[in-house]
Each structure stands twice: as structure tokens, then as C-alpha cells.
Amino acid sequence: MATNASIEQQLQQILDDDHIMINEPLRNHTYTKLGGAADYFVTPSSYEAVQEVVKLANREQLPFTLLGNGSNLIVKDGGIRGIILSLKELKDIKVEGNEMIAQSGARIIDVSYRALDEQLTGLEFACGIPGTVGGALFMNAGAYGGEIKDVLKEAVVVDPDGNLLTLSADAFDLQYRHSNIPEKGYIVLEALFILKPGQYDNIKAVVDDLTYKRESKQPLEYPSCGSVFKRPPGYFAGKLIQDSHLQGKGVGGAEVSTKHAGFIVNKNNATATDYIQSIELVQNTVKETFGVDLEREVRIIGEDPE
């Protein structure tokens, strides 16, 4: 493996200095405000630069991690080695007829509101999802009865070898909170959504209603990763947690929200370890109380602190 100086020099051949950060604290880039440092945090602004960064990581055998906007993610306190790739600079949204092309770094909320502006229906469900387009595809994000797979036609990705591919929605095996994107090692660069013409007032009424439901029920006043657990078959995770009398409980500065039991909030300068242990506390208690296994929806990545 090349020296740190050599890696930095190679990155500088691909990206401007203001798109390269060394030992960058990842708490600055996650919704939970948790996480240790990244060795190299890069923010390419072109598809070609993404491809070159992937090829560099392969060439130097560097660990490589893709980071969206950190909304459904916990980064451990030991940080992440190698290159962290953020696509936040790729955020263009274009509309042609009833088709919308959104780059992966665009917030899915912004895409939903752009659809509203264009009087297109189909993305109302996404008006309260805090992630990016890339992250939404990564986990087939959904809410209020809608999912990304309902509107996705195709996506442009970079494969693990740095090749640019255009793949149909069927290629991603989109299921409940699942895609094959992590297994395939794809990096989503843009998505093509097929929507339907609608009436502005009707679409806005749905968006306003879903926004009210989100803001009135979710603990948006504290940092969190959003909904922590998948819905177990036949149950609601929040109800199981509430009935286990876990609200207000947690480890360290992390706490099960008293407003919405499906959320764990960073209430008082929590560490990632606090947050993860609070998740485990919830899983163990619900298992003991109801015999139900709660599966995490949130991803946990990175290294434990030394």
C-alpha cells in the first residue's frame, strides 16, 4: 500500500483540494452527530471523478466506503479507515415530461417537492424521508405506503471496478428496506423516476398531511438516525418498544425517544457506543418481553475506539 503522502497526491490529481479532507470527523456528516474520523473524506463533483477515486482505491488496496447524507447510519467512535466517498456535490434534479432524473446526492425530500412544483404525483411518500436519492435506492426507502421501487425506472451506477453502468430497476432486487446494491458494490450516481401528471392542490394536500404527521410524531428536535428498526411481521416496532416501557431509557447520552418509541435520540452528547448499546438494550428487552426479534434498519459501520 502506498504512503499517506502518495495517496494524498493521487487524490489531488483527481480532485481539487477543497474536495479532499484528511482525518475528517464523521460526526460532522451524520444525522446522529456521532462518529470518529475518516482517513480521507472526498466529495467529487463529476461522474468521472467518482470512477477515478474507485480505481485509486482498487489500485492501492485501500478500504472504501460510500457515505450518503448520514441519515440512516451510525459510524462507530473509532472512525473509518481508507477513503470515504460523499456524493453530496452531485445533487442536480431534471424534469422532462413525467420523467425525473435526480443525482444521488440530492435529498429525496427535495426531489419530492420538485415533483410537487412540476405537478407530478408518485413521490409524495418521500416528502419526509431525510436521506439522499442514493441512500433511498440503497435501502429501497419508503414511508406511508410508498417505496422507491414504485417509481424507479433505472439508475446509473459505478461498479466496483470503476465502470459506468445504466441498469433497470429490476436489476436491484428492490424489496422491503432492501436492495442488492451493497452486495454488488454499486455506487448510485443518478436515478430515473417515472411519475404521473397530477393536480398541484391535490399533491400538496397529501404532502402537507404527511409532513404534519412526521413533524408531530417524530422527535426532530434531537439528533437521531431516524427509524431504528424494521417492522417485524405482524407487529409495529414502536408499539413493542413502548409496551416494553423503554421510552426515556438508554445508555449514556442516548435515549429511546419519549415522543416516538421507534427512535433513539442523541439527547446529551452521546457517543456512538452509547447509541449502539441503547439499540442492543431495546432488542434484548423486546425479545425478553414479547419473544420478537427486532432487526435494525439503520446501518452500523466503522471501527470500535481503541
TrEMBL record:
Question: Pathway, per UniProt?
Answer: Cell wall biogenesis; peptidoglycan biosynthesis
Just give the chief location class: cytoplasm
E.C. number(s) listed in UniProt: 1.3.1.98
Q: Where are the transmembrane segments?
A: none
**Which InterPro entries does its entry note?**
FAD-bd_PCMH, FAD-bd_PCMH-like_sf, FAD-bd_PCMH_sub1, FAD-bd_PCMH_sub2, MurB, MurB_C, MurB_C_sf, Oxid_FAD_bind_N
Q: Which cofactor does it need?
A: FAD
Q: Where is the FAD-binding PCMH-type domain?
A: 34-198
Catalysis: reaction(s): UDP-N-acetyl-alpha-D-muramate + NADP(+) = UDP-N-acetyl-3-O-(1-carboxyvinyl)-alpha-D-glucosamine + NADPH + H(+)
Q: Where in the cell is it found?
A: Cytoplasm
| Coiled coil, from the record | none
NCBIfam families, per database record? murB, PRK13905.1
Family, similarity comment:
Belongs to the MurB family.
What is this protein identified as?
A: UDP-N-acetylenolpyruvoylglucosamine reductase
Supply the source organism for this entry. Answer: Alkalibacillus salilacus
Q: Species lineage, top-down?
A: Bacteria, Bacillati, Bacillota, Bacilli, Bacillales
